[in-house]
Design brief:
Oligomer: single chain
Order of helices and strands: EEEEEEEEEEEEEEEEEEEEEE
Distance between the termini: 30 Å
Radius of gyration: 20 Å
Structural class: mainly beta
Largest sheet: 9 strands, antiparallel
Strand content: over 45%
Helix content: under 10%
Number of helices: 0
């Protein structure tokens, strides 16, 4: 698998919404997704994972962005190829693989009252497609102060008119309620996937479903005992030493850059240690600490 490419292909087609150009999907964006499933009547949360552009792929003389899933919260190792995506005049189309047919992912030129047919994520047991209606298009200010447009759509069943689903799509980011993996979850009635956080250029932009703004994007929501996350790194930013203090014995510390490449690994076997990061280039990094009992915690830090 090729390394993540931060700037290899910019989507060139943009359309205007009023006087504002639509923001394209960013080459250097990272989507942190949550997921889980119902097991014996209890919802079990999985460790959040990342999604980013890893390559470009030519299919029948059409260029697609290759998205791949990777262990954002567990060391940056690429897990799988997720899907292919391309843009054309504000509309985005995807393929689950090179051999699969192209389908509509979303249309960011929709106006209030417009409808759109999107694939259902459970076609075996439900309708293969569902129709959603745009009920609002409005500007939103994200956590980092940036402004984007947000589309809110609603779906109702055709028999009772009861609204079953509300979706929110933000330009340049995607579906914030159902997560980015529409090839596996775009229009879903349950909570199988959702978008937790979005980063761009290594900086946090916004936190979304089931997560307080600014919270650790790798924290497992719904876990009663959060004591394993009560550890501190300081000073942050730093230009030399980084102190790590935790409640449990830390067996391994791994430092990765924003592409997931491991740049440093130590085995302190202590709950209070120092990491020398003086040799690292300036920028944003992720520190992953693994405790003796197997708990994993990730923190972001900046090297001056």
């Amino acid at each position: 698998m090729k390394k993540f490419l931060l700037a290899i292909f910019w989507l060139s087609s943009v359309v205007t919404l009023g006087q504002k150009d639509l923001l394209p999907i960013a080459q250097n964006g990272i989507w942190v997704e949550g997921s889980g499933s119902w097991i014996i009547g209890e919802f079990v949360y999985n460790t959040p994972t990342g999604l980013a552009i890893s390559d470009t792929v030519n299919v029948n003389n059409t260029l697609y962005l290759q998205f791949s899933g990777f262990g954002y919260c567990t060391g940056g190792i690429i897990l799988n190829d997720a899907f292919l995506l391309r843009e054309d005049a504000g509309k985005y189309f995807y393929r689950q693989s090179i051999s699969d047919e192209e389908k509509l992912w979303f249309d960011f030129t929709l106006a209030v009252g417009d409808t759109i047919l999107l694939d259902h994520c459970y076609p075996e047991s439900e309708e293969e497609q569902v129709q959603l209606t745009v009920i609002s298009v409005e500007p939103v200010t994200l956590g980092d102060g940036s402004e984007r447009n947000k589309w809110t759509l609603q779906y109702s069943d055709n028999q009772s008119g009861y609204y079953l689903l509300v979706e929110e799509w933000i330009e340049g980011i995607g579906n914030v309620r159902q997560g980015w993996r529409h090839p596996t979850a775009q229009t879903c009635i349950d909570i199988g996937h959702w978008l937790r956080c979005y980063y761009q250029d290594g900086d946090w932009v916004e936190s979304f479903e089931l997560l307080a703004p600014g919270a650790d994007c790798c924290m497992l929501v719904g876990v009663e005992d959060q004591s394993i996350f009560d550890f501190t790194i300081y000073p942050n930013p730093t230009n030399s030493e980084l102190n790590i203090l935790g409640p449990n014995l830390i067996s391994t510390i791994t430092v990765s850059d924003i592409t997931g490449r491991v740049v440093l690994r130590i085995q302190p076997n202590s709950n209070h240690t120092q990491v020398n990061v003086e040799a690292l280039q300036s920028g944003s990094y992720f520190l992953m600490a693994t405790t003796r009992v197997g708990n994993i915690v990730v923190r972001k830090f900046i090297k001056d």
